[in-house]
Amino acid sequence: MSTEIRASTILPARRRPVTLTTADGLDLVGELALPPDGRTPAGTLVTLHPLPTHGGFMDSHVYRKAAWRLPALADLAVLRFNTRGTESPAGRSQGAFDNAVGERFDVQAAIEFAEFEDLPNRWLVGWSFGTDLALMHGADPSIEGLILLSPPLRYSAPEDLDRWAATGKPVLVLVPEFDDYLRPEEARERFARIPQAEVIGVDGAKHLWVGEKYVQRAHNEIVKRVNPRAYPLPTTWDGEYETFTE
Predict the structure, then answer these.
(1) Could you tell me the superkingdom of the organism this chain comes from (predicted)?
(2) Considering only CA atoms, which of 131, 127, 107, 110 is closest in space to residue 119?
């Protein structure tokens, strides 16, 4: 019997806690979620969370629900972790928030972990502060493409966009209609520095992507690029599942 996938639905996956070790000697708390039943991932999401000084962490809801759903629905591996000094129910990463400077080691540790685990088709996904980290520190040869949710372009600079432009790699920019920092029209102007960037305005959405329809939209846009064979995502599930409770 089909069950509607709700905000609290947790679908099957192979999930395990991981520790990322940075080049400057910090241990970062994380989780890797893989497709169930031993299936090989079709792609990998290396996620960078929103601003930790304003409540962002590896469990920020778009990423938490990605880890709950996308391994089963789209055969994607989802790597989430807390940047330095950030705490979540999974634990606290060592170090202290460093205004996107020291975090370059965190980004590189996550990319290197995905390489070491031999995870395929690796895409970097940033959300809010995470988009700045991705733009500033994520243009690694092992990364296939970049997906940005609600980019404020607060810490990153024009030369960071130029660096991504030079890679020629796909860049998807999802900009909420009612974003608090950068809205679609201005985003198109500023991301024009990256000729291959695709900027999509998301009607009705806000910076934090609150509301299931906006989460589903973000997930669908991600899957459409990383594993298009799984697009569009189903909204129901046949099989075992769990329900998250606070």
Answers:
(1) Bacteria
(2) 110
In the chain, alpha helices (H): 61-74, 103-116, 129-137, 158-167, 184-190, 212-226
pTM of the model: 0.98
DSSP of 1-66: --EE--TTEE---EEEEEEEE-TTS-EEEEEEEE-STTPPPSEEEEEE-S-GGGT--TT-HHHHHH
pLDDT of residue 133: 99
Task: Round to whole Å and give the CA distance between 76 and 120.
Answer: 9
Residues 33, 123, 236: CA angle, nearest 5 degrees: 50
Q: How confident is the model over 72-117, as pLDDT tens digits? A: 999 999 999 999 999 999 999 999 999 999 999 999 999 999 999 9
What is the number of other CB atoms lying within 10 angstroms of the CB of residue 233?
Answer: 16
List the chain domain ranges.
14-235
Cβ(181)–Cβ(207) under 8 Å? Answer: yes
Give CATH superfamily name and number for 14-235: Alpha/Beta hydrolase fold, catalytic domain (3.40.50.1820)
State the number of CA atoms in the 13 A half-sphere of 25 facing the CB.
0
Tell me which DSSP letter residue 210 carries. Answer: -
